[in-house]
Structure formats: structure tokens, C-alpha cells
Amino acid sequence: MKPIIEKFLKRGKNQIEREKNSVTEDMEISPAMYSLLEQDGMKTVSQHLRIDYNKKMNRLILSGLHTETLAFKNWVLEKKINMKQKSLQINYSVLEFLRSVDCDEMSRDLFISHGITAVYTIENRGVIVIGSTERALKEAEKRINTVLTTKVLVVEDQGVLQMPEWLNLKKQLENLFSTVKKISVLINLSRKRDKVIVTGYRKPVMEVSEYLGRLIEKHTRIVEKVHVKSHAVVDLIKVRKSQDWQHFIKSKEVKVSFDSVRPLIELSGERAFVQQARTFFERMAGGLYTDTLILQKSGAKKYFKDQGKMMLPILLKEKRFVVVLQEDDMLEEEGDLFQAEEWNQRMIRRFGKKVENDKRVLTELKVI
């Protein structure tokens, strides 16, 4: 038993000596530097030295023999001298994302967990990458540029941002892709609230942007104009074909306005519904014919205005056509002129062929 007892006695004596001669010292070290020192084997420099780190005060507390603390400080100083650093030029939104998260945790996730001995810190409104070697700096910069990204969504109708659908979706996506411990995506608005800026890890950013983009596209309120061949087309669709488009008004999804002067129909509402309505009205107008009768005889215009009210009711018992007296202001304004040939070409592009299967005839009477 003597060797065993002597061993325990010697160990106890050494412990008493260490406690008697131990000192406690501290040194200032940033969280980023502390993380790098951990990666470089800080805990193995002196096995008997007790090392604690106060993150709030950025202080490294050392407890042990004076020679041990001195050797450790020299090791830290040498590491700090040999450390490399680089200022990165990155997108402002990515900078704000990196600023909003814990630098130490993000450095571990971005670099250290992938074998890159580097960290980043925010200084003077910029990103500083610190690494043990030049290679580590290059790998860290490359990883930031490939892993993090930003996506900008243009908001044409700011009313969308006030809708319950928008607020609920935004909250759901933030809860889905971010937690208290790890933020993967930030959703922000520009100062003018005309853009949605999604920033963070590339894959979540793309998914979140797709969801938000669909909602913005669907609920954005727009105004579309359906140009037709003549005002007679407008008149016939408005009066004689009202039963065909009344469902748009009843559903309150689209507001339909017929221009009293120019040959066009105006549609307003959420984009998805307006686009459907535009296709509907263009197809309806495409199935109509129009013709223009030009009378150059003196007094013809006045005669038509005076006698037209008596003649037209007899002619228009047939509800398949209308007759309109074309005034000068019933033509498209300059710069917005819509020629019949151009209209036909658009019908061909949209429906694959010129629409002419509907034999309803519109007559537009033009008196000069």
C-alpha cells in the first residue's frame, strides 16, 4: 500500500502548492478571436490552466501558476500577430442580415462547421473576416458569396402589404425558416415600401421569395384597357351582350367600365381576375365584325341626328347589331391609336388565328 499512499500524498501536496501559488489574471479578447483560438487548440496549450470566457465583458479569465498564465498569454499574442484579416465589399442587405444575427454563432455555422478557421465581425459598417491563413480568408469570402443572397420583389400596389393574407403569410414564413437560435431569412421593406427585400441563406430566400411573389402577383390591383375596332363594338358589348359579362360585376372581382368616347373597355381589380377578364373581352370583341359607311353629302350629319331617333328603333329590332354615329372625338387619342389591322394581328397571336366565326355585324355610320 505504501507506493499508492505516497502517490496520493504527492498529488495532494502538489494540489495544495498550486492553490497556494495560483494567480488569476484576465485579458481582453473579442468573441471572434476567442472562437478562432478555440479552433487552434487553446484548451491544449496548458492542461492545468483554468480558462473561462466572459462574453459580455470580452474578457478571458486565466487561473493557474504564474508561469502557466505567462506562457498562455505569449501563445495568444503570437496567434493574434499571425492572424490575417480582410474587409469585404458585400451587398448592403446581406450586411444588414449579418449584423442582425450573432456573429459568433453565424461564424460557426458558416465557416467553422465546414472546416474553415475564420470568423467575421462587423466594424465601421463593414464586414471584416479574420482567419488563421490567407487561404482561410479566401474560403470564408467565397462561402459568404455563395451561401448568402438577397432577392428584391417589386410592389406595384402597396395595398397588398396591408392585406391579412400578406401579414399571415409573412409571419408563417418567418416562423418556418427562422428560430430564436438561428435566423435563416429576413423579410424587410424598402423605405418607400415599393420593394420587398428577402435576405439570408440562398435556398430559404428563393423559397420565401417564390411564396411572397405569388401572393403579390395575385393580389396586385391593376388597370387594363381592352382596345377594340370601333366604338360600335363597345356599344354592342355594353348593351346587347351585357348578360355575358355581368358575372364579373356580380363577383366584385373586376370593375368593368365602357369608355363613352374612345373605342376601349377598361378593367380594374386584382391582377389574376383582370387578366382573365381581359382574355374574355378580347375574345368576345374578336368575334364581332364592324363596317364604316362614309357620307359626304351636305347636311347628312344633321339629318341623321334629327331623323336617326325615328329610324334606328325600327332597324335595331334585330339585336345582333348596332349603329353608331361616329364623332371626331370617338377616335383614339394620338399616341394611343389602335388600328384594325394591329388588332387583328394581336388576335392571331393570342388565339392562333383571326377570330371570325361569329357572324354578328356591327355598323358604324360616319358622317362627314
Overall shape: it is rod-shaped
User: Any guess at the CATH architecture of the largest domain?
Assistant: 2-Layer Sandwich
Evaluate the radius of gyration: 39 Å
Number of domains: 3
Based on secondary structure, the structural category is alpha+beta
How widely separated are the two ends?
A: 132 Å
- Number of DSSP strand runs: 15
Write down the secondary-structure element order. Answer: HEHEEHEHHEEHEHEEHEHHEEHEHEHE
**In terms of per-residue confidence, which ranges show pLDDT below 50 for 5 or more consecutive residues?**
334-340, 353-368
Share of residues in strands = 15-25%
What is the CATH superfamily classification of the largest domain? K Homology domain, type 1
- The percentage helix is 40-55%
Instruction: Please state how the strands of the largest beta sheet are arranged side by side.
Output: 1-3-2
For the report, how would you describe the main beta sheet?
Answer: 3 strands, antiparallel
Number of helices: 13
The CATH class designation of the largest domain is Alpha Beta
**Integer average pLDDT:** 80
CATH topology of the largest domain: Ribosomal Protein S8, Chain: A, domain 1
Give a brief rundown of this model.
The protein has 368 residues and is of the alpha+beta class. The protein is built from 13 helices and 15 strands.
Structural description of this entry:
The chain folds into 3 domains: 66 residues, Ribosomal Protein S8, Chain: A, domain 1, CATH 3.30.1370; 137 residues, no CATH class; 147 residues, Ribosomal Protein S8, Chain: A, domain 1 (2-Layer Sandwich), CATH 3.30.1370.10. It has a 3-stranded antiparallel sheet. Strands 4-6-5 form a 3-stranded antiparallel sheet, with helices on both faces. It starts with a helix and ends with a strand. It contains 13 helices and 15 strands. The C terminus is likely disordered. A hairpin with a 5-residue loop joins strand 11 and strand 12. With 368 residues, it is of the alpha+beta class.
